[in-house]
Specification:
alpha/beta, Rossmann fold, 5-stranded parallel β-sheet, binds 4'-phosphopantetheine
């Protein structure tokens, strides 16, 4: 079985923290599928198509990474891709409880699937899609924290200039 991992998330939008994690993951896995959850409950800012476009653009020069979307349960998607590993990032202790619950629930539903946690690079530990949107909506600078296309699309959505 190929040594590949599914990296699921909402990615609304992808940030440099996510990209850092993908680079770390590529040291371990031969292939990573970045899997965008359709997640209608979360009321995302960007459509799945927009989120995929931003991910693909940010990773266009990175071999061995593809992007896809999924609905329903993550474990079903992982099986549909013939994969057995879910990759998730951990920033700080605050992430742990949610991640622990999710990993345990996924394990309970599908014991063959393992969740692997990688530590985000120190310079990105404070970063999240939510905090990026929070800054952007009020016109704060998000320079150097998101890929270029994401910056552009946030400018478009919120009409800020920095
Ligand atoms: O980036 P996020 O929002 O922290 O990602 C959460 C995500 C998409 C990984 C999680 O909500 C998910 O897997 N959703 C699909 C439904 C599912 O399988 N949930 C987990 C077990 S009930």
């Amino acid at each position: 079985m190929p040594n590949r991992a599914i990296y699921p998330g909402t990615f609304d939008p992808i940030t440099n923290g996510h990209l850092d994690l993908i680079q770390r993951g590529l040291r371990i896995f031969d292939h990573i599928i970045v899997a965008v959850a359709e997640n209608p409950g979360k009321k995302p800012l960007f459509t799945v198509a927009e989120r995929l476009e931003m991910i693909r653009e940010a990773l266009k020069d990175t071999p061995n990474v593809t992007a896809d979307s999924f609905g329903g349960l993550l474990v079903d998607y992982v099986k549909s891709q013939n994969a057995r590993v879910v990759m998730r990032g951990l920033r700080a202790v605050t992430d742990f409880e949610y991640e622990f619950q999710m990993a345990m629930m996924n394990r309970r539903m599908e014991p063959e699937i393992e969740t692997v946690f990688l530590m985000t690079g120190l310079r990105w530990v404070f970063l999240s899609s939510r905090i990026i949107k929070e800054a952007a909506v009020h016109g704060g600078s998000i320079e150097g924290m998101v890929p270029e296309l994401v910056h552009h699309k946030l400018k478009e959505k919120f009409g800020f200039l920095t």
